[in-house]
Amino acid sequence: MKRAVIRHTLNKIWSLTHSKTFNVFHAPSFVNLNGKVFHLRLHSTWQSNNGNGSDSGSFTGKKAKKVKEILKAWLDMFHSCHISEPKQSIEHIIAHTLGSRSISSVYKFNNKVLSLREIQQINELCQQRLKRLPIQYIIQEWDFRGLTLKMSPPVFIPRPETEMLVDVVLNEVERKATDSVLEFCCGSGAISISLLKSQPQLNVTAIDKSKEACGLTELNAKLHDVSSRLKVIHEEITEDHPDAILKKYDVIVSNPPYLFEDDMISLQPEIKLYEDLEALDGGIDGLKVIKNILRVSSGLLNCDGRVFLEVDPRHPDLIRSWLRQYPAMKLHLERVYKDFCDKDRFVEIVKK
Amino acid sequence: MLHRFKAALKIVGYSIRTKFTADSSKVPVLVETELKEQFVRGSGPGGQAVNKTANCVTLKHLPTGVVVKCHETRSLEENRKKARALLVDKLDNLVNGIDSVEAQRKRYEDKKGKDKKRKQVKLSLLKAEWKKRENLV
Ligand SMILES: C[S@@+](CC[C@H](N)C(=O)[O-])C[C@H]1O[C@@H](n2cnc3c(N)ncnc32)[C@H](O)[C@@H]1O
Question: Do A220 and A335 fall within a single domain?
Fold first, then answer.
């Protein structure tokens, strides 16, 4: 019974925090449901501006002006609204507002008195977090290996597992001494740009079916000064040879959508609401796009060339047996790599 | 993978602030198999199905039991490298004591501070003498 009430309340808050007009500072009464009060209102020291209420959300109280105080106030708020990673959320928002990439700066400047503008910015960003917008979109950037990349919804936010895929591919690029790599499904450009940064001689062609992804890859390439060595192609990978690719490769890499359709339902709201689901959805067996990539790669790889894919841990076996069914493609799964959590995460497939 | 981490250690481990180069011949070298690494990301599906910002790395040196933590950057890979650098520093201090790179650097900086002070004192003395000579006081 109690559980059901809580669930109901949460759902209600959930839908409220998602309506466009929702504003915690304008509508504190929303949270009194079934006699249960949810503290959507911050500290009593938080109040609407000069009593005219026009600029709600900005902070004018006398006390909570220091970094540590605003941190505490929003931390409590995130906790009571069941925001995931409450601590990291407010830490990253404050660090970003202070112009730093490192959350340790938040504690270094614990006693710093914030300006009104800074406080206003923190409040605005925190309200976005209440709507479950991922932190990476809120601060509009994230780090991948040593690089800071621009992030913008709905382009897929790079995951840390993929940082290891780059290591695996770099090894192969060095071993083969190849001067060109092809990437399918480039998203924000994380993989391609990392490769280009590590290998000054390399040229990369990157393909994505999303216009936003292509645009973001181009922007990130520009910011990291590798545009001249990166060609971005806006095209969807199907069973057929992509028109725009005219040469063959020794190394192809991809982190394609690989989630099983059934697993999509239970994704965090951050992902489900804001990230491009086309970047994640691999169909019934998670192999929908992977199969197309393999079909196409078979025609695009030189003999002894390799394609490196990030996959679901259930995939290596499925891919191995699928490739056996189609010997004409001349592709063999040669090696499986584990990620840092010891899960089978990357496959190396060679063209014989 | 391993050699990349080692290469990174060289850069991260000994930040070069001055012309001073510490003798690092005694600095311990990490053996990956002697390390136990843990991540907040831990269990669960991982990969595309998870979007988390926490990427704290806990690294334990099994032979000594020394533990370090790093969540300094927003990239897990960078945190792994930094954790290794931190661990090397910590082991170096533990094993080599006064011969550790940190101790060497501290001695150098203390000495530099003293030298600087001595020079300053000397300079102000010379200045005073000069003023006296030229009847400027
Ligand atoms: C999981 S994201 C990977 C992004 C980036 N490489 C990374 O690792 O962060 C997958 C990307 O594949 C793109 N995509 C999905 N299906 C595709 C298809 N059939 N052809 C081309 N791109 C596709 C999506 O737009 C998305 O940007």
Answer: yes
> Is the same domain home to A206 and A285?
yes
DSSP secondary structure, A16-39, as one string: HHHSTT--TTT-GGGGEETTEEP-
What is the count of structural domains for chain A? 2
Distance CA A310, CA A187 (A): 14
ipTM for the predicted complex:
0.81
CATH (domain of A256): 3.40.50.150
Please report the atom of ligand 1 found closest to the CA of residue A162: 8
pLDDT of A293 > 50? The answer is yes
Which CATH number applies to B25-97: 3.30.160.20, 3.10.450.50, 1.10.10.10, 3.40.190.10? 3.30.160.20
Q: For residue A106, count other CB atoms closer than 10 A to its CB.
A: 22
Enumerate residues 6+ apart whose C-beta is below 8 A from A144: A158, A162, A163, A190, A194, B75
- Cα separation, A352 vs A275, in Å, equals 37
- Distance, CA of A229 to CA of A227 (rounded, Å): 5
Domain carrying residue A106? 64-131
Residue B110 carries which side chain, given as an amino acid letter? Answer: D
Residue B126 CB coordination number (10 Å)? 10
Nearest by CB: A341 against B4, B42, B49: B42
Confidence band (pLDDT; 50, 70, 90) for A55? very low
CB-defined site of ligand 1, < 6 Å: A 156, 158, 162, 185-188, 190-191, 207-210, 213, 236-237, 255-257, 276, 278-279, 289; B 48
- Claim to verify: residue A274 and residue A125 sit in the same structural domain: no
A78 — contact with chain B (CB < 8 Å)? no
Domain range list for chain B: 25-97, 100-136
Asked if A195 and A258 sit in the same domain, the reply is: yes
Q: State the pTM of this model.
A: 0.80
**Distance between CA atoms of A127 and A133, rounded to whole angstroms?**
9
Would A56 be classed as within a structural domain? no
